[in-house]
User: Fold this.
Amino acid sequence: MEILWVLMAVVLLGFVLLPFLRRRRGGIEQVPAGHPDAADPANYGFVLQEELDVRMPGPDQDLLDVLDLVQRTQDYKAASQLLAGTEQEGEQRLQRVQAFAGAASLELQQRPGGVSEAPGGQWLRVWRAEQPKDAGGAAVHAEFLVQQAWRTSTPGTDDFRIIMEEAKAACGEAALLAPGDPVPYIVELSVARGLGYSQAEFEQLWLKILDRAPTHMGAHLAALHYWCEKWHGSREQAYGFAEAAAARAPRGSLLAAMPLFAVFEHLPEVNLVSGFYQSEVVTKAIHGALHAVHSARADDPMLAHVRHLLLFFLVRGERWAEAMSQLVHIDGHVGALPWTLSADPAAEFAIYRALAVAGYEANGGSPATLAQ
Assistant:
């Protein structure tokens, strides 16, 4: 098997990709066999790299249609209507709030405005001004401020704290407008991480979320960040939080995949042990995530998130057929971990997709043998 890794390394070096990957956490040190002509993802009907959608982890056509309309017309009303019709306690509401906030934030970054030009994301400002009691608009505004803090300033600086304090106030306002909605409190989890809430303060916030949506996967992922070693917890606390969530997960819940996310958050910057991704702790987390995926509803909005992370670990663990089975479901969208940590998510995803195809074919697989 080692010769397979070396051969594919030569291929990737030809694209000047390997030096970049070696600098990143979890980056590929060696990669499996396969010539580009003999292992072409296009043979499986996969989307071209330049056509991969980096905005979302999976399809949400209603959201895409509304985003296109809002950004084209700079009229917020369609966004307001979509959120008003989205279930409060469901995963989809948080994802849509994050998508609208992210769109406004990116618009502002691209068009900061000036004497003769309105700033990007003006539709969100108009939304808040014209509909101050709109719970959806308030939640989007709170998330927008959170994303602005992380995007434009550095944690620990005065600028960062000022924006985060404003975001905290916006979360409180959004919560008052929709008492049963967990989203404003979930958004505040990021504020808690950025402002360094004490563990007691964080627990109080977390209880408010559990009262409203105890099995919310998006909320658990946001909370996991707080408990990680690099923020306000430790590896043990993060693993404990994830394992507890998995243990109490009801049948069909993706919370059983939480340990895999905890493992990912604590990957070493440089991993020189080739068997790490086949170790007991990683294997156990992968099996939990696979079980969650197989048990979940096909329309669960968080299913794609788990499949994307599984692809990363399955490729690293040389479990080619299982990696390909995830690709069949998620190809086309790359707006999820781990790809979003890269400066070019589509390129990062495409590398792992090529590795999965190469490893699959090196072990006798083909388009004809891949179950759809």
